[in-house]
Amino acid sequence: MSTRFSIDLAHPGHVADTWQDWFIGPQGRRRWVIAAAGCGIVLVVVIALILPTRIRLSQDVGAIPRLRADLAARQGDLNVLRANLQALSLEARRQVRWAEMLNAFRQQIPATLKLQKVEVGAVPAASTTAPPGQAQPVGAPPAAASELRIEAVTPLRPGPPPLIEIAQFMGGLMKDPTVGRRYQLKSWEIKQAGGAGSQAAGEREQLLVLIVLSEKLR
Q: Which residue, among 120, 101, 107, 210, has the nearest Cα to 166 in the 3D structure?
């Protein structure tokens, strides 16, 4: 019977350990304990690094539906706020335009004319129905323009006819940049204010002036 062994030439007189001796040799138990302790430390470190991240990730994933609901609610609030801001902006621009228009009227109107009413109304859109036998036109209908209706009264008096003052008023109004860049003269009319014989005793007869300005299409 023969036994195989190894000789450690670097250490004369010492028999070299085999790989089995590392596990079952005299130092095997201590090495097993050290290896187990090292593995335990590594496992604890890995768990300490991964477990909080895993818990945090699970919480974040669970919070996604709630965050989406909050985002939808905030988006709805933002849309309402945006619509309100747009409405306020339109109203502010309308107020500024009316202030400019009234200032132009105050500067151009003669002393003998007295404004009764200034109002803006939409012009009824023309029918786009094609005659029988013709194709219906394709495309969006044109935007409805608006009309500015001005009513004023002037007393019927001797001297220069009121037509001169009314013509000067309309000409100055159309030359004003605030009015001229947006409106153009559509029609005007002069007629007796009220019914015949409706004037009280001692009052002068009044003439009603109707001026209609149409909005320029852009």
A: 210
- Rounded to 5 degrees, φ, ψ at 184 are -135, 150
Cα separation, 102 vs 104, in Å, equals: 5
How far CA 79 is from CA of 8, 72, 91, 92, 205, in Å, comes to 85, 10, 18, 20, 56
Is residue 17 within 8 Å of residue 25, measured between CB atoms?
yes
First to last CA, the chain: 116
Is residue 100 within 8 A of residue 181, CB to CB? The reply is no
Report d(CA 102, CA 141) in Å as an integer.
32
Sign of CA dihedral 35, 37, 38, 40: positive
- pTM across the whole model: 0.49
Nearest to 186 by CA among 123, 129, 103: 123
User: What tokens were used for 141?
Assistant: 């209908």
pLDDT in tens, 79-130: 999 999 999 998 888 888 888 888 888 888 888 888 888 888 776 655 545 5
Q: Where are the beta strands (DSSP E) in the chain?
A: 114-122, 146-155, 183-192, 206-215
Tokens of 147: 């009309």
111-124+145-218: in CATH 3.30.470: no
In the chain, the amino acid numbered 67 is L
Residues of the chain with CATH 3.30.70: 111-124+145-218
